[in-house]
Amino acid sequence: MFSFVLQRLVQSVIVVLILSIVLFVGVRLIGNPVDILISSEASEADRLAAIVALGLDKPLWEQYLTFLGNAVRGDWGTSFVYKEPVVGILLQRLPASLELGLVAFVLAVSISIPAGLYAGLRPQSPLGRGIMAFSLVGISIPTFWQGMLLIVAFGIALPILPVGDRGQLATHFGITSSLWTLDGWSHVIMPAFSLALLKMSLLMRVTRAATMEICRLDFVKFAYAKGVRNRKVVIGHILRNALVPLVTVTGIELGNLLAYGVITETVFSWPGLGKLLINSIKVLDRPMIVAQLTYTALLFIAINFLVDILHMAIDPRVKSVLRRRES
Amino acid sequence: MSKAFFQVDDLNTWFFTRKGTIKSVRDISFDVSRGEVLGIVGESGSGKSVTGMSIMGQIDEPGRIVSGSISLNGEELTKLDFEEMRRYRGNRIAMVFQNPLMTLNPLMRVRDQMYEAIGAHEDVPRNAMHKRCIEALRAVGIPSPEERLNAYPHEMSGGMRQRVVIAIALLLGPDLIIADEPTTALDVTIQAQIIYQIRRQIDERGLGMIWITHDLSTLSELADRIMVMYAGAMMEIGTTEEIIGGARHPYTRKLLDSVPSRNVPGEKLKQIPGNMPSLMALGEGCPFASRCERVTEICREPVPATQLSDTHRIWCLHPFEN
């Protein structure tokens, strides 16, 4: 177990390093930020001064090493646009994205797994078919479109929910969030549902497929043949085995929800990271882009690690494979 | 032989699919006495497994027991609802499945899968459960049962897992065990050991067993009586001697002829030409008619049972003479 964790840590560091190189070079290919940052009337001298000020006159490898050295010390550079440390801006935006992503995740999981399970157990029932129809709609409608429909329906036609922004914030236990206030919840619930809809629909289908597959297996029939109560067979045998594929998919979905809320954040003008990323790319704010994408990578690495740990906890066969590999 | 405690009468289990009705089990009647092994033999699709699942009350949609009666100790099982039937399952009637690699939940320790079986029917403290599980594992010849109890299924061989499954079936001291090809997936030496252990449990505890298989040679060693099924219907039923030594039904004869050990070494194995008829398009008459050498016009009419002895019954209008 310990050596597994260590191994994964080393792997993660390597992945982040490789990714940082790809990012650093890749960002340079999109365009030159100096062209955007300086007005077209600026003199050549101003231009050169700007290049030196941004450190863009040095060779690429030196720029990279400087960046790496600073990054390790927690200095991710200064935003070309905001003229502020990138980390500060990220941390300022992060809570908004996290609360939106987490609410969406809880919504997606808590609705899709019971619904998918039911649809898998009773695929022919009207409700089971209804759940499948719903998920098909959820997958088919583009996120920006359903987001706008939601705004029109619940924000304008039937004005019961506010549109845009996080609403009233409050601070408890050192965390500032809109989730502490009722007004905050009224702001977050609609974008969260919009963000969750696609994931919810996907998870429903995965849960249903896994459930149907497991129901056919002999150990489920054997559990019933032992006289085990229906509820216990469903939870202890069927759902438990369905969790193996579900944990993987759910992990990826969590990463997506926390990192790629771009469309939803734009539609609902939610002041989170997604909007920041799009704006940063528009103006070629290199440090901002690199920092955000690295954050995304770290997020996925952490989630994958968590997924692996969960797999080990759920499926004893995973653990014994690891043990065999170690010995 | 003691009096039968378990009876099936005119059982019909059909599956109502979009393409048509599949009559998997048609007018099956038999009984089982204490300490007796009834073997049910037939090709795949003959309805033998559906018969077993019908008794367990575990026929899934779109299937259903259409008519007939299943009674255990005088209690009618087909009339029970899910909860009432649940109390019988694993408790009075237990089942052993074909593939031991698939029968146990891969994510649960053997202990939890055994405790669960006891807990479904009795309110027993953990240490009492533990003792009973150890005893059950020992009874089926599992070495160091304490260790096995903590193991996961994947840490054991197929033979060990099937013993665990049989131990679970024995846990609550059922009256009847239905074993659906329990040794088919195992190699021959393990098969022989397990059959020996099962036979011992049956004799010691005086329980009844229905052993479903396509393998007549296993049955000849184990079963007291044999029932031959074909395309969902009964062909012949009798004591093992009556079937193995003196089969009268053309189908049973063909089945016996196709057992490898009864063929001359080096010679081609004897097959039964043709295929089983579709279970959706069965006529009134003998289902074997299309493959039978002795077939005549009257075989297209419904075939009544002929009682050849107290124990030997046959559904054929042109049986072999002894």
UniProtKB/TrEMBL annotation, chain A:
Instruction: List this protein's GO terms for biological process.
Output: transmembrane transport
Cell membrane among keywords: yes
Gene3D superfamilies reported in the protein's UniProt record: MetI-like
Q: Where located? A: Cell membrane
Which GO terms of the cellular component aspect does the record hold? plasma membrane
Query: Which protein family is named in the record?
Result: Belongs to the binding-protein-dependent transport system permease family.
Q: Per its UniProt entry, which superkingdom is the organism in?
A: Bacteria
Name the predominant localization: membrane
Topology in the lipid bilayer: Multi-pass membrane protein
Q: Which InterPro entries match?
A: BPD_transp_1_N, MetI-like, MetI-like_sf
Q: Which UniProt keywords apply?
A: Cell membrane, Membrane, Transmembrane, Transmembrane helix, Transport
Any one Pfam family match given in the protein's UniProt record, by short name: BPD_transp_1_N
Ranges that cross the membrane: 12-31, 100-121, 133-158, 178-198, 238-263, 293-314
- Source species, please? Mycoplana azooxidifex
Q: What is this protein called?
A: Peptide/nickel transport system permease protein
Tell me where in this chain the ABC transmembrane type-1 domain is found: 94-311
Automatic annotation (TrEMBL), chain B:
Q: Which Gene3D superfamilies match?
A: P-loop containing nucleotide triphosphate hydrolases
What sequence ranges are listed for the domain ABC transporter? 6-256
* PROSITE patterns recorded: ABC_TRANSPORTER_1 (PS00211), ABC_TRANSPORTER_2 (PS50893)
Query: What are its GO biological-process terms?
Result: peptide transport; transmembrane transport
Membrane topology designation? Peripheral membrane protein
Give the PANTHER family listed for this entry. Answer: DIPEPTIDE TRANSPORT ATP-BINDING PROTEIN DPPD (PTHR43297:SF2), OLIGOPEPTIDE TRANSPORT ATP-BINDING PROTEIN APPD (PTHR43297)
Protein's recorded name: Peptide/nickel transport system ATP-binding protein
Q: Which organism is it from?
A: Mycoplana azooxidifex
